[in-house]
């Protein structure tokens, strides 16, 4: 068994066929010709428009009912804790049941929870604990949705089109991030924070309807063992793949350091060094523009050397932290954040394609749950340590330390030959008409 798995994990060999530019363009849009994927893409895009608006609506809803920063922190934490506690359960459920059905019910639960919060806000009877409860319910639903959504692409898209399918999803997600916060601010100003959350609830309901129309070619393999056995099997599979747990450990270091440096200390840097929220908003726009550009690049470019590309992409996230530590001019900082956004989008798209290619479909949900848990588990500790560290060592020194940590974490896995050799399987030589024909066959 382990010998077979090592053979499966071995990097594929063979020449990479040359595909014309016209063929790449047609291939890039081919997944949208597949009806189940088109439904999935539309539902995710609609849901992301709500998710981009919700944070602003939620923040001002807390303030509207008399809560302060502490209350808002409690509401935000309430969405993270259930995910940490239930992600592994969600991974088992995603492998046992229909992934489309899991996604439907996760969205319905969130829609109902947010609709209840909207009614309380509009009626003027909402209290902070109501929003904490709503946030916790949505966080719990997300623990089931994430593994299911990560695995459904494998079920509805043929292998040769999955990289393009992942890139299209990233383009949609990152594009929404550009306009979503502005839309949220307008909704809060015009109709109030309650109705901004109402928009999020509506998108959850509409997405559930679209997910319910996805028909899978084959049912998910039913597991006859017990829940504990399923969980143990997923863990054994996860830890037996050295390349996988090494890269998850890398993410467990880089993700909290990046969130602390960019999301938490970044606005502080904007206030103290750049002169306020407006210039920091320009920096954030540079990052989102980089995310869109990186997803577009990944759509047209399918690199084989996944290990090198992922490490380079995650390592680019050190650039903005180093730029802030050096107090570079604003235009240079904007370029630095755009570089980080581009690298992050490319690495995430390529990594998703590799995991979908290497992990068996009946274990993909559990693998994704272990992977996601490994990344988010250290985040709360990073937030707790950031404040004391910045006070003790100073803002710029803390940012410089973060840049060094990210750089080291990006480079260390490359010392392992298995990581350096990670490659996507070469595609079979086919022209653009062949790609289109494969897409039509999946309608």
From TrEMBL:
User: What Pfam family is a match, any one?
Assistant: MFS_1
Asked if the record carries the keyword Phosphoprotein, the reply is no
Subcellular localization is given as: Cell membrane
According to the record, the segments passing through the membrane are 45-65, 71-90, 102-122, 128-154, 175-191, 197-216, 243-265, 277-299, 306-327, 333-355, 367-386, 398-417
GO CC terms on record?
plasma membrane
- Do you know which InterPro entries this protein is assigned to? MFS, MFS_trans_sf
**Coiled-coil annotation: which residues?**
none
Q: What SUPFAM superfamilies would the database entry show? A: MFS general substrate transporter (SSF103473)
Q: Does the keyword Cell wall biogenesis/degradation apply?
A: no
Q: How does it sit in the membrane?
A: Multi-pass membrane protein
Cite the GO molecular-function annotations of the record: transmembrane transporter activity
Q: Which UniProt keywords apply?
A: Cell membrane, Membrane, Transmembrane, Transmembrane helix
Looking at the record's lineage, which domain of life comes first? Bacteria
Q: What is this protein called?
A: MFS family permease
| Source organism (scientific name) | Streptomyces candidus
